[in-house]
Design brief:
Largest sheet of chain A: 5 strands, antiparallel
Distance between the termini of chain A: 126 Å
Shape of chain B: elongated
CATH superfamily of the largest domain in chain B: Cytochrome c-like domain
Number of strands of chain A: 15
Order of helices and strands of chain B: EEEHHHHHHHHHHH
Distance between the termini of chain B: 90 Å
Radius of gyration of chain A: 35 Å
Strand content of chain B: under 5%
CATH architecture of the largest domain in chain B: Orthogonal Bundle
Oligomer: heterodimer
Largest interface: A-B, 30 and 34 residues
Largest sheet of chain B: 2 strands, antiparallel
Helix content of chain B: 40-55%
Structural class of chain A: alpha+beta
Strand order of the largest sheet of chain B: 1-2
């Protein structure tokens, strides 16, 4: 009797802790380091301009005369009017706003196809406010290393004071952000008094509250998480970029092989690139990514890594542009040079002459690349929409006439045998001044108008005052004598005219009659 | 996880979903994201406690906030009713000319009267007040009992030939089929028709006018213009309640039809009747 041998089966538990995938990742904290340089300066400038526009616009005044608000930009929801400097828009003219949105969309395509995600990197409100919140954080807690130390430090009175101060300032900015928004919807100088005395509408306080919460949460607490996980634009941009779009690029054709110990490696006869692997670009990144891994959806192309790397190159006495704005086509061409057409790994000696200068085989970005069929099409579409909007704004009438024919009954027989039709006539005075509008009938000979509520003898023309910036609704009866009847229905025109401003509008109306005349 | 697939480039496991050769990575969710998800679940549970949610056998849980959309509608209706209160009170206390002179009250009365008309009057007079055979058109300028707002109000208040209202407008044309001969009926019908149109046999007009003078002028007047005191229609105009033309006129002479309109004061109250009078007066034929 032999010993019973039991073979070992190939099996392992499905939920073995070692192989269990992580389902929920804790957020890695990011402590972006201060940078200085052209792009940082440009970002400060853009921030000053965009925040300036946002905070100051509601306070600009614009004289429209005594019958309209004097706020340059005002969304008057109660009266459903939108004022923008010279332009006043009624609800039925909302297509101007649609047109602006179409232009914004095409403009975004144009910008993205030429300079990549410039919107994300410089002008997106999320970026601007995060930049502002980071500036506050740096001013109070110090730069990257100090902040990391403070974060890791146990809670002390000092940490408490610093953190409380930071969050307090963030909240003040957030309140100011939410507060500024409401001034676009009411007379700003009047509203600010009401806000502080508690007399403003509840909607104003709710708006301030909601925008305070979102500004504080998105700008202070969530920051890069908003861009990476909540915003759809990083996904859309992949379709917007092509090989001629400028994006922030790590030029590994001159950076690789990177080395922390260049001298040692050179001495050993190994090829050495320009990148000294100092991680300055990673430390500076507000998204917490490594640009040297190539284009990635987290990158908002704020170009701060370019500034950070430039300082290092200066110290090493090397050319700027290890990280630079470059197009994929230039990058690929240069990679082909650096790898001898892909036959080897990157070799710095391929891209430099014996004197250490860059080889003239390398591609340089040329401004011509911006002007290509695709950008011409975007520019053409953008301009066409813009010109159409400008034209329709210049050509639009500020006097409009709408007519609604009574349907029930379509006509009324009067005792003398004449036929009467009723019309609801709307006169739209879209100018901020009182006007006298002359309403005239054209065609339908023999017919006369009478207006309900206005004591006028029946006739073919009458003048009526219309309040500034208001619609006037009139009920007009048109009567046609029995001996003028002919056919089932006839058309005629209502004409509304402001003789002082040389504006007029016409409407072709139908006059119904009994089909069978007695 | 035995059939787990690993993406070669990133080293991440994939969900196994593949589109055009692109496989979906099974990246871990950010913890704040999943926390937000749990918070929404907690919120949803709280919501079902606060608001009516869980179905029971015959009803549903009421929710601790005791919210009900029906109560909401009732409150809004009550608020609208309360908002109308001062206008209705003003209409009740003022006379019709005073209401007509006040632009706000007039507009309110026309709107409220229009609504009341749709509920109470369309059955006979039609939704556009256009009337039909036997039911007068209220848009035109021909009025049996008078087209001033006060006269219209009187008609609406007490009705016409409405037996249970002592103040009702009352008149009755005799059935002349029993009183005059068939020839005379044909003659007088031709005469009446000739006042506003053409007739087939013009020789009947002359004898017809004599029949008219003997029998009809007491109510319809020497000139056949009618008399609103008795609701006697104007026979010279283009508007015929029971049809124009000799045949229809002859039928009405022989055995007249008489419409009945109920009295509305008791049902609708004074304010509503005034609103209706102003509305009807505004339709285009008011005098």
């Amino acid at each position: 009797m032999g010993e019973t041998r039991i073979g070992r089966l190939e099996a392992s538990p499905a939920n073995l802790s070692k192989t269990r995938p992580t389902r929920y990742a804790a957020r890695k904290k990011i402590f972006p380091k201060r940078t200085s340089g052209n792009f940082r300066r440009f970002k400060w400038l853009v921030m000053a301009i965009t925040l300036g526009i946002y905070y100051l616009t509601p306070w600009l005044r614009w004289n429209r005369g005594p019958f309209a608000p004097d706020q340059a930009v005002l969304v008057d929801l109660a009266n459903s009017r939108f004022y923008f400097f010279l332009i006043e828009i009624w609800p039925q003219e909302f297509y101007y706003v649609s047109g602006l949105l179409v232009m914004a969309g095409i403009g975004l395509f144009l910008i993205t196809s030429t300079v990549g995600r410039a919107w994300c990197g410089y002008t997106c409100p999320q970026t601007v406010w995060v930049d502002l919140f980071l500036a506050v954080e740096r001013a109070i807690e110090g730069d990257r290393n100090a902040r990391m130390k403070l974060d890791a430090h146990p809670w002390t009175a000092r940490k408490l004071v610093l953190r409380a101060t930071k969050h307090a300032i963030w909240l003040i900015i957030a309140v100011a952000t939410g507060g500024a928004w409401i001034f676009y919807f009411a007379d700003a100088p009047m509203l600010i008094g009401q806000v502080f005395t508690g007399a403003a509408a509840p909607a104003a306080y709710v708006t301030i509250g909601v925008l305070t919460a979102t500004t504080y949460t998105f700008g202070g607490l969530m920051r890069e998480q908003v861009c990476t996980y909540m915003c759809p634009w990083p996904r859309i941009q992949a379709a917007m970029l092509d090989e001629n779009s400028l994006t922030v690029t790590y030029n590994d054709w001159r950076g690789e092989p990177r080395s922390r110990h260049a001298k040692k490696a050179l001495a050993a006869g190994q090829p050495v690139g320009d990148c000294v692997d100092c991680n300055a670009c990673v430390a500076a990144c507000p998204m917490g990514i490594d640009i040297r891994d190539g284009q990635q959806l987290e990158c908002i192309t704020c170009a701060l890594c370019i500034d950070a790397c430039k300082d290092v190159m200066d110290k090493l006495g090397k050319e700027h542009g290890l990280i630079s704005y470059a197009t994929l086509s230039d990058y690929s061409a240069n990679m082909a040079v650096a790898t001898a057409g892909g036959s080897s790994t990157v070799n710095p000696s391929f891209v430099r002459t014996d004197e250490g200068k860059f080889s003239d085989k390398l591609a340089q970005f040329h401004i011509r690349k911006i002007f290509r069929l695709r950008t011409y099409i975007y520019l053409g579409a953008w301009s066409a929409v813009g010109l159409a909007l400008v034209y329709s704004l210049l050509a639009r009438e500020r006097l409009e006439l709408n007519v609604l024919h009574d349907r029930n009954p379509q006509f009324v027989t009067l005792s003398d045998g004449s036929i009467r039709n009723g019309y609801t006539v709307k006169l739209l005075n879209m100018a901020p001044e009182p006007r006298t509008v002359v309403v005239t009938m054209q065609g339908l000979p023999g017919a006369e108008m009478s207006v309900v509520g206005i004591d006028l003898p029946a006739g073919r023309s009458f003048a009526v005052p219309v309040e500034p910036d208001r619609l006037k609704m009139l009920k007009i009866f048109v009567s046609l004598p029995a001996d003028r009847l002919g056919g089932a229905a006839q058309t005629f025109k209502f004409r509304a005219e402001d003789k002082a401003r040389f504006e007029a509008d016409e409407y072709t109306a139908t006059f119904s009659t009994p089909e069978i005349t007695r | 996880m035995s059939d787990e697939q690993i993406d070669d480039i990133s080293g991440m496991s994939t969900t196994g979903h593949e589109w055009d050769g692109i496989r979906e990575l099974n990246n871990p969710l950010p913890r704040w994201w999943i926390t937000t998800f749990y918070v929404t679940i907690a919120w949803a549970i709280g919501y079902t406690i606060a608001y009516p949610a869980w179905p029971l056998l015959h009803s549903a849980t009421k929710g601790v906030l005791a919210y009900s959309s029906r109560n909401g509608v009732n409150n809004e209706l009550a608020a609208a009713e309360a908002g109308k209160g001062k206008y209705v009170a003003a209409i009740e206390s003022k006379s019709l000319p005073e209401i007509a002179a006040d632009d706000t009250l007039r507009k309110f009365a026309i709107a409220a009267g229009g609504a009341a008309y749709k509920v109470n009057c369309t059955q006979c007079h039609g939704s556009g007040a256009q009337g039909s055979k036997g039911f007068p058109n209220l848009n035109d300028d021909d009025w049996l009992w008078g087209g001033k707002a006060e006269q219209i109000e009187q008609t609406i208040m007490h009705g016409i030939r409405f037996a249970s209202d002592p103040d009702t407008r009352l008149s009755e044309m005799p059935a002349f089929g029993d009183l005059i001969t068939a020839d005379q009926i044909a003659q007088v019908s031709a005469y009446v028709a000739s006042l506003s149109g053409k007739v087939k046999d013009a020789s009947l007009i002359e004898p017809g006018s004599k029949v008219f003078a003997e029998n009809c002028v007491a109510c319809h007047g020497d000139n056949a213009k009618g008399n609103r005191e008795f609701g006697a229609p104007d026979l010279t105009d283009a508007i015929w309640l029971y049809g124009g033309g000799e045949t229809a006129i002859a039928a009405q002479v022989r055995g007249p039809k008489h419409g009945v309109m109920p009295a509305w004061l008791g049902r609708l109250g004074e304010a509503k009747v005034k609103e209706l009078a102003i509305y009807v007066h505004s339709l285009g034929g008011g005098e």
